[in-house]
Every structure is written in structure tokens, then in C-alpha cells.
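Sanity check

After download, print the first record. It should look like this:
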Amino acid sequence: MLPPPAAHSPTPPAPTSTAREAEWLAKTYQAGATNLTARAVLVGMAIGGAMCLSNLYVFFKTGWSMGVTLTACILAFGAFRFLQAVGLVKKPLGVLENNALTTVASGAGYMTGGGNMAAFGALLMVTTLRPEPLPMIAWFALIAALGVFAAIPIKRQLINQEGLAFPTGTATAETIRSIHDAAAGGGASKATWLAGAALFAALLTWLRDAWHVIPATIGLPVMLAGRSLATWTLALKAEVVLIGGGALMSFRTGWSLLLGGVLTYAVLAPALVAQGIVTTVSYKAIVAWTLWPGAAILVASGLTSFAIDYKSVARSFTGLTRVFGQHRGPAAASGISAVECPEWWFPFGFVVLAPGVVALMVWLFQIPLWAGLIAVPLAVVMGFVAARVTGETDVTPTKALGPVTQMVFGAITPGNLSGNIMSANVTGGIGLHAADLLTTLKTGWLLGAKPRHQLYAQLFGVVAGALVVVPAFNLIIPDPSVLGGEAWPAPSCVVWAGVSKAFAGGLGALHPTSRVAIMVGLALGVTLALLEKFAPRRLRPLLPSPSGLGIALVVPGSNCVAMFLGAAIAEGLRRTRPALAEKTVVPVASGLIAGESLMGIVIALLIVSGVIAA
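Expected C-alpha cells:
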């Protein structure tokens, strides 16, 4: 007799969450493998500190914080290969040791994100307040550490049980596997590409900024409205950091930046000057008007995308009820409780860290105590939401959560500019670092790492990042008046400052055309976000990116041109030579960013100390 057709065979039941965890313990978890070591912590802190410096430089140039984990794991692999070659290290870097090192580096490198530097820069732009370095180091460290502990109660739900993608975490796991697999090769090659690109970028930056033998800007012999294109900020820049940043973006974001830059500086700006709305042809004068539609596009698209994903938001809250309602039976039965971070760590961390955050809010930023007591629990809940959205989309919704918090505190503490900005910093910082730890925990889950060791690693990174980011900020931005200028466009700071002023003082003081531009920007942001979600899939690559258009309105046109070139080169390579692109795009782009940004910081230090002239 023939067996019954497969269609009539009973479908095997999906494994329960307990079964999935038991399977992971049996097949993936590497109980005896080396994870967090002293050398991983030290090298991770060094790499993370360097990437924090790099991200700081890039952030004030472009408004983006670049990814850390992929670059860090390649850099760590290359560093240990070199140390072995010269005899300083005997034992090679292991897969899980690299994962722990990368977690340290990620905690440090992302200290510029989550609204930290956007808030700090905006604070200096709208007030005369410049807190002392030590309290600000404590501020950033406490917020980030609270985000780390906020990841604990939702880790099992999002990663072990639901298996959310966390695309960057998954990609990092694959990268670590590939570069440590001798048979696959390519690890040393990627590290070599990264090092070569970094050396090239560092040399170019020295020749441009220290010896001044290479021009910073190359103008085109084209006139527009009686002035050269360079006067309208449309020029070629000898800044490979922008090309590297563009290469790490999607091509859609790259061409959207170019489109937005051309429309802003070749169409809109000349019209504003002709009508007398903008009286001076300069970047700062133009962006003082264009920041309003730019901020409107970014805020509206971020909030709309967040609202569209209401199911994800709802799942984050229903998931929390499951998290805090869990009994210990399944965890104990699967043996997972001996591996995971204990559940009591989150309330303990909250009780220890939250009073420090509230005290600093009251002391540094004159936020009423009652408002601070609202801000921190709200920020932790928003952190849970941000973590789920990151797991499903790979985008941490800082652009949505920050303005929402600013709106709330603009209503409950009217006129308090510093409180409005820094309360949003709490939300963004906690959300980012919760999402960042969960991203690296996804990497560890796929590789079989120890979650507790990764939490320790993230805390080491947070401390390193906080110690680096505040002195580095004060070094490269000694005078806050340069923020929002052509040298340091700081688009995210400009947006946060603009949103804060709007919520604190209302829109009535703006020029009537600015109010119209805000309405247009809001409508455009909502429309693009809706099309991005609901348009036919084949048409979505043809839609402008709202992030690209919004940022283009608040950065110089030359930045848009350079980032488009980077995105176009990377896209062309992916389409024509995909194997070469896989080997070179991320390492070369990361090397260009690291080389120029770190050399730029060195040159800034030498100028401040009087060794070289500005």
C-alpha cells in the first residue's frame, strides 16, 4: 500500500519556547568556550573608544552614527593577527572572544547615538549652559547603563522565544564566522582592505588639514543666479569620510540625498534669496530657513512609520505582560536560567541607576523632580518599544521617540528648553543601548555565547564610551557657535534644537513662509512614510527616502554630492562585481571613515596645543 499523500500528513507542531531554548543549549551553546577575557575587554575598549571618536566626527559632519559591530569584529580580527605576527600575542582570538570584544566596542562606539550628541549639541545651541565634563560623563554612562539593564527582561521574549531577526546582529554573526573560518578565507583580506583605506584617508586628511596642500573644496566652473555653485554649497569636497558614509547607506538614501541637495540649494535657496526671505547667500543663512521643512519631514516620517508599525508596538506591551508574568518553571526545566542574566538584575539596576539619572536631571538641567520621576520610567518603557522595533526592522526609532518626549515635556514643563532636550535624551539613550545590547545578544545567540558575559562586556563599553565622548566633544567643538555651520553642519543637533524651540515658544514667531514649509514638510513626511509601507514592492526603490530628503535640507549641498558618490560607487560594485563588493565595500568604507575621522581629531588636538596652525 502506498503511503498517504504528504498533504494529508499531520503537520508537526511548532516547537515551544522551552523546546527552542533546550535545543539551543544542546546544539548551539558552547559552555566551555572562552568568551569575555581581560584582553577582549582592553582591546574592545580601545577599538570602541576609537570608533566613538570616529562616530563623533562623522555625526557632526553628516548627522548619522555609523554601525560599529561589523567594523569592530573585522578590526579585532586584523589586530590580533598582527599582534600574533609580531609575537605579542600567542593565542589567536576565538570566535566567542571576538563576539565579546565586539560587544564592548559596540557599547562604546554607539555612545554618540540615541540622541546623546544630538541633545548635547542642541543644548549648547539653544542655551548658554555647558555642564562640567565629569557630571556629563556620569549622565551619559548612567543613561546607557540603564538601557543595558532594560534589555534583560525582554531578551528571552524577543530572541529566544520569538526569534526576531535583528538583521545587524545576524550579519555580524555571519561575518565573525566567515573571518574566523580558515577554509573560507577572506578574514585577513577584509582586515587588509580596512587598514589600507584607513591609511589612505589619514594621509589625505593630513595633507588637506595640516599641510594645506590639498584643497578642502573643489568648486565647479558653473554659475547659478549670478553666483558660483560653490557659493550655494554645491561643490566637490575632499572628505572621504562622506564617501565612506555614503557607501554604507542604501543607494536609495544616497540618491535621495542628491535629489534633496539639488532641490534645496539649486532651486529653493535661489528662490528664497530672490524673494528677500533669505538675505545672505551662505549655508548658515539658508539652513536657518530650510531646517523647518527638513525637521518636519524627519519627525513626520519617523512618527508615521512608528504608528504604522502599531502591531509591533502592541506586541512590545503584550510581550511585557508575558515577561513579567513568567514563572520560573520553563526556564529551570530547560536549564536556561543558569545561562541567562537573572531576572532580578533589571529591577536591581533600575533601583540603583534611576535615582542618579533623576538627580542629574534636576541638578544639571533644572528639570522639576516630579518631571524627572515621570521621565525615567517612561523612557524605560519606550526602550522596550525601541528594542522590538529594532529587532523587526533594524532601525532604532530615535527620530520618533525623541520628538514624542520633547512634545510631552514641552507641555508639562513649558519654556524649559534644556529640560525639553535632555528629557528626550533619556528616552533616546535608554532605547538605543537596550536595542544595541539586544543586537549583540542576537549575535551571541547565533554563535552560542554566554549572555551574562555580553552584558558585562556592554557595561565595560559604556564606561569607555562615556569617558571618551565628552572630552572629545569639548576638543573638536570648543565653540558651540560653529555647530550648524558649513564646517560642522550637525544636522541632528539643528533639528533637535528647532523642535525644542517650536515646542517651547510656539510657531508664531516664525516667518509665515516657514510655517507653510513646516506644513508641507509634515505632509511630505507622512506621505513618503505611507508610500514606503504600502506602495507596490517594485515601486519602492523609486520613492525618495524621507530620511535622505530631510537630512539634505540641513546639510551643505557638497555633503549630499559626496555621500551620493559613495552610495553610487558601492551600488555599482554590488551590481557588477558582487563577490568583490562583499569583500571590500564595508571594510573600505569603514576604513575611510575611521582614517579621516581619527586623523581629524589628532589634527584638532595639535591645533589646540599650538603644534600646527589652523
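If your output differs, re-run the checksum step. Summary of this record's structure: The chain has 24 helices and four strands.
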